[in-house]
Amino acid sequence: MDVLINVFVALHIIGIASLLGGFLTQMKAMGEGRARFNPAMLHGALTMLVTGVALVGLNQADDQTVNNLKIGIKLAVLVVILGLVYVKRDDEKVDKALFGAVGGLTVVNIFIATLWT
Ligand code: HEM
Predict the structure, then answer these.
(1) 17 pocket-lining for ligand 1 (C-beta < 6 Å)
(2) Does the CB atom of residue 117 touch ligand 1 within 6 A?
(3) Which residue among 18, 24, 75, 104 sits deepest, i.e. has the most Cβ atoms within 10 Å of its Cβ?
(4) Cα 116 to Cα 87: distance, rounded to the nearest angstrom
(5) How many domains, in total, are found in the chain?
């Protein structure tokens, strides 16, 4: 079970790389007000959701404690990220503040995951 959980943690991290990496490639464009949500961000956010839910299930099946408040907050933040990226996925330009908010919320979730132990 440990190996399976670690495989899903690795997939979870690949999801972060895709979501945050997609954001970082657009930072120059964001400064110029012409950033757009790219497929890497959408698929990264979806990967976070699927692997995160799987991790909760795997940890519970393995009788490991899951911090429900921490996971609930991470889930709520991700739902906002995913909603924004999904709704605006076809927009050729996204407002600087909105685009920055998605990057900021992603970083917030990374710090919640790593600092809240
Ligand atoms: C942008 C969104 C997210 C980010 C950046 C993120 C980040 C991370 C990181 C860096 C880890 C590894 C560090 C650790 O073990 O604590 C992790 C683990 C984990 N994540 Fe996420 N996560 C996100 C969304 C979610 C969601 C939506 C769920 C569940 C619905 C979730 C559930 C978990 C679980 C169960 C673990 C295993 C370790 C633990 O118990 O905290 N994550 N996440």
Answers:
(1) no
(2) no
(3) 18
(4) 30
(5) 1
